[in-house]
């Protein structure tokens, strides 16, 4: 499955537009990771644990996107956009949500 943020691919014309597809992932934030990330916020530096979680959530959302596009018979998803959101809840603490969306197509 070709996944691209561009609206077209050079040399690969779109044969058929199959529709809008999206993929989502939501990951819970670990309390210890939150604590140490808070310390890093105070003293500075990168939070490797959060970076890893963010990459994992992005990969899962793109995988979900590709699966939904494949169900439509697509061989590519174009104009892909990624959205990130942090959700704070009283019951579960922090959650990280990533949504990937784009247009499922059949390329020539």
Q: Give me the count of strands.
A: 4
For the biggest sheet, the summary is: 4 strands, mixed
Distance between the termini: 13 Å
Helix/strand order, N-terminal first: EEHHEE
Judged by helices, strands and strand pairing, the structural class is alpha+beta
**Helical amount among residues, as a percent range?**
25-40%
Number of helices: 2
> What percentage of amino acids are in beta strands?
35-45%
Rough outline: elongated
Radius of gyration: 17 Å
Q: What is the strand arrangement across the widest sheet?
A: 1-3-4-2
Mean pLDDT: 85
**Parts with pLDDT < 50 across at least 5 consecutive residues:** none
Brief write-up:
The protein has helices at 31-43, 48-71, and strands spanning 2-3, 14-28, 76-89, 93-107. The chain is α+β, with helices and mostly antiparallel strands.
Features:
single chain; 34% helix; elongated; 108 residues; alpha+beta; 4 strands; four-stranded mixed β-sheet; 43% strand
Give a written overview of the molecule.
By secondary structure, the chain is an alpha+beta fold. The chain contains 2 helices and 4 strands, in the order ββααββ. It has a 4-stranded mixed sheet. A hairpin with a 3-residue loop joins strand 3 and strand 4. The longest helix is centred in the middle third of the chain and has 24 residues, at 48-71. The mean pLDDT is 85.
